TrEMBL record:
SMART domains: IG, IGc2. Residues 24-101, 213-288 form the Ig-like domain. This is Ig-like domain-containing protein. It comes from Oreochromis aureus (Israeli tilapia). It holds the Pfam family Ig_2. InterPro entries: Ig-like_dom, Ig-like_dom_sf, Ig-like_fold, Ig_Fc_receptor, Ig_sub, Ig_sub2. Keywords: Disulfide bond, Membrane, Signal, Transmembrane, Transmembrane helix.
Length: 413
């Protein structure tokens, strides 16, 4: 008879299990933060303890001024992706995004991430932000106005500070935010409308050295081919001389006038600029260069060119057909009227010449050929003379406009 023996192991090390009511919150990153119009934007959503089995959800942040927050709209194909990244193609304007993650069955979801923004400096017509004075850098205690412009009644101005905090303007008067600058006002600013529109974004830098210079440079991108002037200024002295200017940390000019002029800006002029005066340097600011506006291209010139080429091709085809078929008259119309009976004889100079004309409905073009009959009296003459092809385009009468009558005369060899 066998006896069973029961053996036990040593106790394992203890672990602590913590249950929290707070949902984890993923961290969203966007790249790039500043974009060129039409560029792609990559979103990355990171959970605290990444592992297999997570699904990710991607949203666009839509401003909700009544709640002083934002609502979230799911992006196309942004529901439950296995990848923790999402690419947006053709981004043109400032926008905000959030993400969240889920796993399990039934699925457990994290909280939404903090919104992250991709900024565009390119001004567009729906909503725009203007800065007065129109420069990137400002001294402390300067009065700066940021005004939202567009066809909307409600606005808010938002700021993303250097330490990553998102805040609203504290002094809004209608569509204008008024700032009395301090060092904490340095950041990226943009407008959001009550209809969910974002304006272009601008950088504001506040000089914390009361005795140092600032670089006076444009807030918005400069168009290729335009002229631009950069200067250096002190709080107590606006016009300086013997100023050094730097482009991407490279000395480009020591101008006794204290001004850097670029007569025709090109893409190579884009970059960081700063100035130096009496051994003190300003902060550096980015100057963006955008391409010339192509929306004003001569569209009508292209349309006219296409129509002109088409007309020439049609005329050449008609000419070829007349040469091959010896038609006395060819009429293009919706419904041709009957021809004049018989032929008429001109008792003038060309008394043997037969005139045949095709009558047409209102507005139809007609192509007619006048040719002498090949009788024995004129046979020799016809071998030496060329028949004449008369193309007559009757005027097209429309309300408010009449196309001038045109005549083209061709000689058939």
């Amino acid at each position: 008879m066998k006896s069973s023996q029961h053996k036990t192991t040593e106790w394992s090390d203890s672990v602590t299990l913590t249950v929290s009511d707070n949902k984890p919150r993923p961290v969203l990153t966007v790249s790039p933060s500043w974009l060129s119009p039409g560029a792609s934007v990559t979103l990355n959503c990171q959970v605290e303890h990444p592992s297999a089995g997570w699904s990710f959800y991607w949203y666009k942040a839509v401003p909700d001024l009544s709640e002083k927050s934002s609502s979230y709209e799911l992006l196309p194909d942004g529901s439950g992706t296995a990848q923790d990244s999402y690419i947006i193609h053709g981004q043109t304007h400032t926008a905000g995004y959030v993400c969240r993650a889920g796993r399990g069955d039934p699925e457990y979801h994290t909280d939404h991430s903090q919104p992250k923004f991709v900024w565009s400096a390119d001004v567009h017509s729906a909503a725009s932000l203007t800065v007065s004075p129109d420069r990137v850098q400002h001294f402390t205690s300067d009065s700066v106005s940021l005004t939202c412009e567009g066809n909307f009644t409600e606005w808010r101005v938002r700021k993303f500070s250097e330490d990553g905090r998102l805040s609203d303007c504290r002094r809004m008067t209608g569509s204008t935010c008024n700032i009395y600058t301090s060092e904490s006002d340095t950041g990226v600013y943009w407008c959001e409308s009550g209809s969910g529109e974002f304006s272009s974004a601008v950088n504001i830098t506040v000089q914390n050295d009361g005795n140092g210079p600032i670089l006076v440079s444009p807030v918005h991108p400069v168009t290729e081919g335009a002229s631009v002037s950069l200067s250096c200024s002190l709080k107590t002295q606006k016009i300086l001389s013997n100023v050094f200017f730097y482009h991407n940390d490279k000395l480009i000019q020591n101008d006794p006038r204290g001004e850097l002029k670029i007569s025709a800006v090109s893409k190579s002029d884009e970059g960081f600029y700063k100035c130096q005066y009496s051994g003190r340097e300003s902060a550096q600011s980015w100057m963006s260069v955008k391409g010339a506006d192509s929306s004003s291209s001569p569209v009508w010139l292209m349309v006219g060119l296409v129509c002109g080429v088409s007309l020439i091709i049609i005329l050449l085809l008609l000419l070829y057909r007349c040469r091959q078929s010896k038609y006395s008259c060819f009429t293009r119309s919706i419904q041709s009227e009957s021809h004049s009976p018989g032929s008429s004889t001109n008792h003038g100079v060309n008394q043997n010449e037969t005139h045949v004309y095709g009558s047409l409905q209102h507005g139809a073009p007609t192509l007619c050929l006048r040719q002498s009959p090949p009788d024995s009296a004129t046979e020799q003459m016809n071998t030496e003379m060329s028949p004449t092809l008369l193309l007559r385009l009757k005027p097209l009468e429309r309300k408010g406009s009449i196309i001038n009558q045109m005549k083209l005369l061709f000689t058939l060899k």
